[in-house]
Every structure is written in C-alpha cells, then in structure tokens.
C-alpha cells in the first residue's frame, strides 16, 4: 500500500470530526475519503459521464451496493432499454 501525505487547511474542523466520530485521524480520513469517493461517483453518474459498472468501481462498491446507493440518493438509473436488457442478461448468466 502506498502512503500519501495531505495538508489540511483547517485542522480544527478535522479535529471536530475526530471528537464526534471518536476515531483516530487515519480512520476519520479513510471515512471521509470513502464518502467523498462515493459522492463524486454519484455526481459523475448523474452527469452520464460514467456507466453503472464504472460508477460502482469508482465508489469501490459492488453493482448491487451501488444500486442501493443510487436509491438512497434518489438518483434515477440512466439506462436505455437496450442497456437494461443487456445488464439483465449478464446478471442471469452470473446467477
């Protein structure tokens, strides 16, 4: 695993997260990165810049988990009928 250094502009807000979440800096940072990754993936999906599969991959979720995330965020699927049929066929093959 590679290590990346980050400088925080307002460390007091980060400290507030630590106190509220009762976690170490590394845990808080990992959680914030995970949520940010998911949020950016959702944004790209809404803009139709990524597919369902790529959105899930960027969010580091399974397609099923990503579908749940889309539903939680009231994000409609931007699939054509042909794309939906292809996804269904692929799911049937896998199952």
Protein described:
- With 95 residues, the chain is mostly helical.
- It has one domain (11-94).
- Helix content is 68%, strand content 0%.
- The protein has helices spanning 11-21, 25-46, 52-59, 63-72, 81-94.
- Helix 3 crosses helix 4 (63-72).
- The two termini are 33 Å apart.
- 8% of the residues are buried.
- The model has no long low-confidence stretch (mean pLDDT 84).
Distance, first to last CA: 33 Å
Total strand segments: 0
Specify the biggest β-sheet.
Answer: none
Contiguous runs where pLDDT drops below 50 for at least 5 residues: none
Q: Given the helix and strand composition, which structural class is it?
A: mainly alpha
Helix percent reads 55-70%
Number of domains: 1
Shape: elongated
Q: How large a portion of the residues is in β-strands, by DSSP E?
A: under 5%
Q: Radius of gyration in whole Å, from Cα?
A: 17 Å
- List the total number of helices: 5
Q: Report mean pLDDT, rounded to a whole number.
A: 84
Helix-strand pattern, N to C?
Answer: HHHHH
Short description:
Helix 2 packs antiparallel against helix 3.
Topology:
Blueprint: H1 11-21, H2 25-46, H3 52-59, H4 63-72, H5 81-94
Please give a handful of descriptors for the protein shown:
about 100 residues, mainly alpha, elongated
């Amino acid at each position: 695993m590679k290590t990346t250094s980050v400088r925080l502009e307002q460390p007091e807000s980060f400290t507030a997260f630590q106190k509220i979440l009762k976690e170490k800096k590394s845990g808080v940072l990992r959680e914030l990165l995970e949520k940010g990754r998911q949020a950016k993936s959702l944004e790209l999906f809404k803009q139709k810049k990524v597919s369902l599969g790529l959105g899930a991959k960027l969010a580091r979720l399974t397609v099923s988990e990503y579908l749940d995330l889309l539903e939680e965020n009231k994000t409609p699927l931007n699939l054509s009928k042909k794309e939906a049929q292809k996804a269904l066929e692929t799911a049937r093959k896998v199952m």
